[in-house]
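Side project, low priority. Logging it here so it doesn't get lost.
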Amino acid sequence: MSTAISDNAAIRAAGICLDLPLRLTSHHLRGTIARIGGNIIRRGGKGKSTVVRALDGIDLTIPRGARIGLIGSNGAGKSPLLRLLAGIYIPTAGYIITRGKISTLFTSRIGINERLTGRENILLSGLVLGLPRAQIEALEPEIIEFAELGDFIDLPLHTYSTGMATRLGFAIATSLNPEILLIDEVFGTGDRDFQDKARARVAALMKAASTLVLASHSVGIIRRFCDQALWLDHGRIRSCGEINEVLDAYEAELASQRQAPPSRPLGRAGE
């Protein structure tokens, strides 16, 4: 199998499968099947080797400069795919090649240690993100200003409110200008007063990135920031292409599902 990537491609994924382990009893497994998007596979007796196939046979080439919107219902595989592209997950099968510096915006608390001060956490998180110390020190004043922490920046994080810790983590995670930006549902981050500022920050970051992959349940957000869409369904690619064509088909299916009458529960034997 060739692992070459063309000169104009930022990401190449071929034959990707991802199995995530489930440590559930048979009783819990029956209730889980109806709620989870991936396919459940049993490998061995009594659920000991049960896995969810979160992604199955993904073949994807993302050109440089593309803006891809990931859509699909809960459990469709959007977050696992982003984490594979970021190198957080290792595929069960297939391979992924990336070309360019990747930055992720999955969680606002990457690398944060509750026992360290805010300033120390800026250094720690920057090192986790792969930045040299000199670059972290250059970014520090802007991060502190954006997070609006004042004198709390030199206090340990366990003294912070949830909103303060979120602001710090968000400021750190969005302080880069990456070549490839991967985003997973971040537009509701922080308290209400911080959300408008956060949205403007993410919008500017997306415009600066040369390649964007954005997962969101909001079709409006996908239409605003992306020029192509990838529709995932139960871990497989349902459709991929021009944004309006894919999103129109997706919205039409959602509308038909809402209009469908609810299925009747099965009656007891003899009813």
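Brief comment: The chain has two domains: 9-101+219-258, 112-175.
Revisit when time allows.
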